Request: fold
Amino acid sequence: MKVMYIFATYNKKVMGLFSNIFGTSNSEKEIIKSNVNWIPLNSLEQLEEIKELSKTESIVIFKHSTRCAISRSVIKKFENSFDEELSALKVYYLDLLSFRDVSNEVGYQFQVIHQSPQLLVVKNEVTVAFASHYDIMSIDLKTFI
Reply:
């Protein structure tokens, strides 16, 4: 029994080390902790919902690649900059690797060339601001509240 416990403990530590070095293999299990109240964007039908909501408020779409180091860095910076003043803002999170069809349709419907990471602000059914990579941090979301 003691040998099995030692092996299980050793195996858990080794697997944890591999996960830290190489990341997780299942992007859908990536957990993002932040002040942002993320709304998962994972269906084409939600784009109509976003357009409708944008008639009365600004809507944000964050396109994220779970395999990209720049995307990981930018989303962390984005989350760290998100304060209580922005809490009413609806922010949709799109894992573009898992939902490529939705990502393509976002580009088509909101007339932006695909990049990753990418942030779009939608108002009255059109894109009023967008940026990609580290330029995302230059968008002052408070102007869209």
Remarks:
- Confidence is low (pLDDT under 50) at residues 1-22, 24-29.
